[in-house]
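Standup notes
- DV: blocked on the single-chain target, sequence here:
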Amino acid sequence: MRIVRETSSRTGPRMKAPSTARERILREAIRLFADRGYDRTSIPEIQAAAGLSRGSGALYKHFPSKEALLAAAVDQFVDTARQGRTELAEMPRPIDHKARQLVEGMLEKLGANRDTLRILWRDLEHFSQLRSKARDEIMARTYLAVAGWLKEGQRRGELRPHDSEAVAAVIVGSVAMFRVFEAIWGERAIDVSDERFAAAWSDLLARGLQP
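- DV (later): unblocked, structure below
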């Protein structure tokens, strides 16, 4: 067995590095918060789910409190949104390809944060700072980034004149809610795949805004 592992490590695909205790704790906390709710999830339950002794207090070596875990979940989502905005700025033209990439990228990143979407929707009522951070850093800045991309398309003559802020609200809002409803209900309200959704949306966007 040892020889096989050593050979595969040199010639096969690189193995994924094992997650750290901090990563496991945060991952399991997000899962439990999404499944049970923040208030109904205890520190011992998170520790046990992360492979730690329930009563050890080992979680506090990485996070000072349960609220710090909630904040870390929001921060992780914020980082994903920032990455998406960077990718938007670097997307190649033409406009129809970029529209498809825009929608696909949003679906992918929202899907990767499905549990956090449930938490944001349900559990931030009593955490005004985290709620404001999520609203401003994830949604508002994404709206502005898409609006800026649309304005640049107008400036270059690739898109016809239009209300860029309003169109950005339609794009981001519809894609976000497609994922939010799926996260909340655990299933889709209509049997439409991500591929079909992205194709339909990019077709509407490109055809509707091209000169």
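- Follow-up: Residues 87 and 105 are 8 Å apart (CA to CA).
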